[in-house]
């Protein structure tokens, strides 16, 4: 299914996955203040699902990388707020605020960026080792 | 076995094992945020002994059993976490980073030794 993985594939794909996570955090934070007149129409936080992938011929050798296996919507209920002056309020005067936990998003953002940095560090270490190996015996 | 092979083998085998370990450790770091991922690693000392055939007894009869371990699954084992997390992921970044740093330093050391071997051979050939 997949060709053998090199370190560049392993870390590269992990960085792509963290990038997706960072993007979804950005979307969630951007929509944190949006409101809707129905609970169904309210914005719900998005989260990527990470899944380990193994190359076929290297299965069982400990080599694997990560990929995003779709995005799911948070099950958090939108906040019902009484605000009759709001133009989007329903007949009873309620609006539904986006189901986004800002603190959680900030923590998620930090974690994603740290893991992205980790993968870059792995990549640059591997690159310098490979370059040193190329100039062997000189 | 070729004389040159024999001369280079200890360092060459160590280097290729170090590279394999580098890949496994980077897989662990790549999967640091994946639920239910189990961190893996290899037993370097055992695999190295295996690779250079150290401590092997001669098998002169079909009924003799080789001392070398033969494990089909590439011999990557699962790491036992110090403090398991709720999502079933056993990657502990500090452990992985430590092992990664140690592996990198050893790789460079092996490289240095191999390089010196080549230099030694070269100066012997030149007869300087």
Please describe what this structure looks like.
- The complex is a heterodimer of chains A (138) and B (128).
- Chain A is elongated.
- Chain A is an alpha+beta fold.
- The longest helix of chain A has 33 residues, at 102-134.
- Chain A has helices spanning 7-30, 102-134, and strands spanning 35-36, 46-53, 65-73, 79-82, 94-97.
- In chain A, helix 1 (7-30) runs antiparallel to helix 2.
- Chain A has one domain (7-136).
- Chain A contains two helices and five strands; from the N terminus they run H-E-E-E-E-E-H.
- The model of chain A has no long low-confidence stretch (mean pLDDT 89).
- Helices cover 41% and strands 20% of the residues of chain A.
- With 128 residues, chain B is mostly helical.
- In chain B, helix 1 packs antiparallel against helix 2 and helix 1 (3-30) runs antiparallel to helix 3.
- At the A-B interface, helix 1, strand 2 and helix 2 of A face helix 1, strand 1 and helix 3 of B.
